[in-house]
């Protein structure tokens, strides 16, 4: 298996979400005054947000958590495609949290402007380690094509960009997105992938086998040099692992 990647496997996406919510709760039970967490969009995080809202709304130290995103579609916050909009609907609207702790990408702006503003906000608020912003936790998903955040296989150069954020382009729709770049993702204290579904199984197997095919996938190259990386999988997404 590739390097220091750890795997945890759950029966289904719901069990995965519930178990991860508990791990996240435990992670925040320290004396640290602030946690900076970058969120992901997608179906599995949506389940996670529902669990957090229904089971942990009164338990989490929300006043100490600052929320960011690993990527965002360049759409208004009210658009159905907005990762922020989905999080607001499933989590923020069901907990007590100050708006100043929610750092969204302004997807309604020109993409380059949105990327610059988001990058500046990250640099002004986060701790710096080795010249790059340092997130406490980055939650990532993975597409059927092996992309993560909005780093797609046709834009592998974003893994080594010298920018904190870049404008990415979806390979099929052409939709513009703002994404954290590889050096920021790999500078986090923790990177946790949440992946479910049979459609992801082949890519997971390629990544974990250190294969030539796996090395062509952006998700393969996410491996924080000074932090932990854990793949939280359901049985379907793990079904092709050896």
Commentary on this structure:
By secondary structure, the chain is α/β, with parallel strands linked by helices. The chain has one domain: Rossmann fold (3-Layer(aba) Sandwich), CATH 3.40.50. Helix content is 26%, strand content 21%. The protein is built from 6 helices and 11 strands. The protein has helices spanning 13-27, 43-55, 83-90, 111-125, 182-185, 201-208, and strands at residues 5-10, 35-39, 65-69, 71-73, 128-129, 132-133, 137-140, 165-169, 176-180, 190-195, 228-234. The chain has a 6-stranded parallel β-sheet with strand order 1-11-10-7-2-3. Strands 4-9-8 form a 3-stranded antiparallel β-sheet. Strand 5 and strand 6 form a beta hairpin. Helix 1 (13-27) packs across helix 2. The protein is globular and about 45 Å long. InterPro entries: 6-phosphogluconolactonase_DevB, 6PGL, Glc/Gal-6P_isomerase, NagB/RpiA_transferase-like. Its EC number is 3.1.1.31.
Q: Return the structural class.
A: alpha/beta
Strand order, sheet with most strands: 1-11-10-7-2-3
Q: How far apart, in Å, are the first and last alpha carbons?
A: 10 Å
- What portion of the residues fall into strands of 2 or more residues? 15-25%
- Tell me the domain tally: 1
Number of strands: 11
Q: What overall form do the CA principal axes indicate?
A: globular
- Architecture (CATH level 2) name: 3-Layer(aba) Sandwich
Total helical segments: 6
Per CATH, the class reads: Alpha Beta
Largest sheet: 6 strands, parallel
Low-confidence stretches: none
Put the structure in a nutshell:
The chain has 242 residues and is an alpha/beta fold. It has 6 helices and 11 strands.
